[in-house]
Design goal:
Elements lengths: L1 H19 L14 E3 L4 E2 L9 E6 L5 H17 L6 E5 L11 H11 L5 E3 L4 H6 L3 E2 L1 E8 L2 E8 L15 H10 L14 E2 L7
Parallel strand pairs: 3-4, 4-5
Antiparallel strand pairs: 1-2, 1-5, 3-7, 6-9, 7-8
Length: 203
Amino acid sequence: MKKIILLLMLAFSAFFSQAQTVTLKAGDAAPDFKLKNVDNKEVSFASFPKAKGFIVVFTCNTCPYAVAYEQRIIDLDNKFRPQGYPVIAINPNDPEAQPEDTFVKMQDLAKQKKYPFPYLFDAGQKVTDQFGAKRTPHIFIVSKTAKGNVVEYVGAIDNDPEGTKTEKIKYAEDVITSLKNNQKPAITQTKEIGCTVKRKAKA
């Protein structure tokens, strides 16, 4: 009985922490960060001085949805980095809660999959909380403006998490196409699809 109560308390704690996280929305300022990349160098928005904006993706090693979107994230970077919109991937999971998301495991995956983009470790989940990322993957498309970095879109990469649709709505691509044409995106928010961010249990 005590074990059941403890499990319920842990589940409630995880749910409550997720519920308390406020997700950024279109028009909000995108907080800058400086996080360690898998090559042991620190990366921030300033690491891309020629960028017009950024595709910030909170993703991980382990979630089946993150795995399913892995190649699509690589494709986004390959397509839009040359056009000024590089991918910046951030792992939001606490490695104590998900041992397969340690920094070393991240390095292994990035090397195995030949990630063309930085894959950053968010120690303490500070940046995860600043953006309000709740799932993996959870995407934030950011514009670089005269007033600073501004969120333009938040949500899912597309409407096909299973990868089975012959015709899909490519939210991320459509948003960046609009931004490149100096237009506001028609869609600025969709429901994020993926596993919840893994947090260690509070003592």
